[in-house]
Design a protein that fits this description.
single chain; 362 residues; alpha/beta; six-stranded antiparallel sheet; six-stranded mixed sheet; globular
């Protein structure tokens, strides 16, 4: 699935814009503050119903609180899909083919991932970022994952409320059976997905960074060798003191290691960016293999922290990717010169303050 057209009204610095995209790599060139990242934000919102910048929707309007985004997508062997996103006095209005839709409906139909300056958090910050990365992929390929994850979250919330309220032990442990059943299913889905992910990750890492001694492991969130039932029983007193459940899949940790040590402190910023790109590309390819629909990849500020060899490696991987990508840059570096100006698959666009032109015919 890929965007054939993205349009917006009153979205940040754009009174109005439209972008007729190609199914391969779409390069967006422009000066700082020209609106390149805003275009990626619009595409991301059409797949996630939120901004990767973390900004609330009411701040995105230019001439007031209202704004509108529209996307048209083509799917191989299937009908096109129209996505509409509108913010106004009544809040967020989301539609698929003109019919009201939920965020879950949208994310299930339009898969979007982004590599942007804050993506370093995937390696540097806490485990929540890596769980989100893993669970996004699991959601798209393991259909039983989301219902199990929702049951687990509901039971976890109720158990934690009972703990904070000082409820008697039987009332707290009344939620254990659901936690154990749904948590076991969440863990099974994660492990199955991770096994497939590892199979493609090695080749992607080598293509971007050369041969590395790497590993990707999932610490499940409770003591190894113990069942979740045993862990909940053993941690009951600690749960009471802290007012929350301290063991379970919600505490899982995805660990990327190089030569047996955490990758976080062993690589330069450029290598870190390529490692994260490898994780995103490998997962996107896995989703494409399992579902037939390749996620849309967004890469903001492509040259940042990447020397010429790293740029060459990443642009080569993006050009070889079977799905669609959108890449922004202030200038057209030597590596970006590999992107054809205007072809059936790829295109170059120029972004100036409040306007998009292209594909270039130079």
């Amino acid at each position: 699935m890929h965007f054939t057209r993205v349009a917006g009204e009153n979205f940040r610095l754009f009174p109005a814009f439209h972008l007729d995209a190609r199914p391969g790599l779409n390069l967006l060139l422009g000066a700082n503050a020209a609106g390149k990242t805003t275009l990626l934000e619009a595409i991301y919102a059409l797949g996630r119903a939120k901004s990767f910048r973390g900004a609330p929707p009411e701040q995105a309007g230019t001439g007031g609180a209202h704004w509108r985004l529209q996307g048209r997508l083509a799917s191989p062997g299937g009908p096109p899909l129209a996505v509409g996103l509108k913010w106004g006095s009544d809040g967020l209005d989301l539609r698929l083919d003109q019919a009201p839709a939920s965020v879950q409906d949208l994310v299930g139909r339009v898969a979007v991932q982004v590599l942007e300056p804050d993506s370093h958090r995937l390696l540097e910050d806490g485990p929540v970022y890596r769980r989100r990365y893993l669970d996004w992929g699991v959601f798209h390929v393991e259909h039983r994952f989301y219902p199990a994850w929702r049951r687990y979250q509901r039971a976890l919330k109720q158990r934690n409320q009972a703990l904070r309220g000082g409820a008697a032990r039987p009332e707290v442990e009344a939620w254990n059976a659901e936690l154990i059943a749904s948590g076991g299913e969440v863990q099974e889905c994660r492990e199955a997905h991770l096994q497939h992910l590892r199979e493609g990750l090695g080749g992607t890492i080598e293509a971007l960074l050369g041969p590395l001694d790497w590993s990707l492991e999932l610490a499940r969130g409770w003591t190894a060798g113990k069942s979740l039932e045993q862990a909940l029983a053993e941690h009951y007193e600690q749960d009471c003191r802290q007012g929350k459940t301290v063991a379970g899949p919600h505490r899982a940790e995805l660990r990327l290691k190089l030569a047996g040590r955490s990758a976080k402190r062993q690589v330069s910023r450029g290598q870190q960016k390529l490692l994260i790109a490898a994780l995103l590309l490998a997962q996107a390819r896995l989703v494409q293999e399992r579902t037939g629909l390749a996620p849309v990849l967004l890469v903001d500020d492509f040259p940042a922290e990447l020397g010429p060899p790293f740029q060459q490696a990443l642009i080569g991987a993006l050009l070889a990717y079977p799905g669609q990508s959108f890449v922004t840059s202030i200038e057209r570096t030597a590596a970006l010169a590999l992107v054809p100006e205007n072809s059936v698959k790829n295109a170059v666009f120029h972004v100036e303050h409040g306007a998009v032109s292209g594909p270039s015919l130079v």
